[in-house]
Specification:
By secondary structure, this protein is mainly alpha-helical. The chain is 68% helix and 0% strand. α1 packs antiparallel against α2 and α3 packs antiparallel against α5. The longest helix has 45 residues. The radius of gyration is 22 Å and the shape is elongated.
Length: 191
Amino acid sequence: SGPPALSIREIGHRMQALHAFKRVLDATLRWFCIVFFAALVLLVVWQVFVRQVLNSGNAWTEAMARVVFIWQGIIGAAYVIGEKDDVAIDFLVRRFPTAVVRGIEILAHAIVAFFAIWVMVLGGGQIIANTWDDTVELLPLTQGQIYLGVPVAGVLIAVYCLIHIIDTFTKRIEVVDADRVDITQLTDEGI
């Protein structure tokens, strides 16, 4: 008398849809970061050109470059977490039995998601509310608008953590046999 159980086929379709969503999100964030990095380079080059060649000042480019850098960095951090390219030293964890490895992975993703929701989304939302009307010199933005990147990144990180937790239940976990590991063959990607 609960919801009907999903068949293996239905679960497979839902996982395919989840991975398709993740691919679109990955591509969107990748392009966001590329465009913002290009904008950052252009702003800095323009600033140097105006100062050095035209012997003039263009203060708004410095302020805007700072905003673009912050947004690119924080959204880029969400993208890196989505790609699982963040710092993770799992060599020792992989020596435990599969169930323990799976539990530690779920716990790690849950902690990151909790931080993203608690600090970035909720805390960032409070900062935005408190600074929404504060003007930023030289830019047609308010401080609250600049801080919007924090909760946006927090939501993205939480979504990625949820996807990683779901994947942890369905993927095959490789356990490392400590007696068969050659430390000299490990690369920075494997540590």
